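All the exercises in this workshop are built on plain-text protein records. A learned vocabulary of local backbone shapes supplies the integers on the structure line. Once this layout is familiar, the rest of the handout is easier to follow. An example says more than a description, so a record of this kind follows:
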Amino acid sequence: MNRNLTQYHIVIPARYASSRFPGKPIVDINGKTMLQHVYEVAEKSNAQSIVIATDDQRIFDVASVFCDKVLMTSSEHQSGTDRLAEVCQMMAWTDDEVVVNLQGDEPLTPPELLQQVAENIHNYQDASIATLTTPVHEQDEIHDSNIVKVVTDINGYALYFSRAIIPFQRDLHERCDSDLYQRHLGIYAYRVAFLNAYNQMSQCELETVEKLEQLRAMYHGYKIHTQQAVMLPGPGIDTPDDLKKIHSLLV
């Protein structure tokens, strides 16, 4: 596919409230807020527009300095997907348009991944969502419940996401050097039609047990296509300790 023909929007959700790191999007990293670093990643992509969506006036004021499309959204949303759906309605995007979700605490995301996930959903017309994966080989990571694993069918469509070990090797309990285990990366492309339908979908028990909202989409019959990422993203920032580790990686 010609990369210049792939049309998509980027939405960057940014919340002030965080149990582990309040105010995270507007912390300073080498003279810029984390959110500005994330915005500059989006600027390096081929997206036709970039929107920052927040529910806090402090973030709105900071973001408005460097971004001309900052939206104040509801503080009642239960998930980032709900916030994206509100943005689609506010922007009046049509059902067939594509939205890429770039998290506001991922300043080390390669812009190539944003392009890749957008192309992925364009290439698989029956997918409502596209996302990326990377192989996991180390046993401590395979067993880590904070690392979400995914298994797919022969065409790359997700069969299930879990914090548990999937697939489970009944007769083998040693290092796996194949790409059998796939870590899910939290980068998504959505069709606007799906986002418009999302907040009408009831939660399912799988979603509430695993704490993985993508399982709601699968439970209701929507397809998620996956691809291995063309490169590895840098670490995200969940805690103040994480922040200390990346100062040298951002300029």
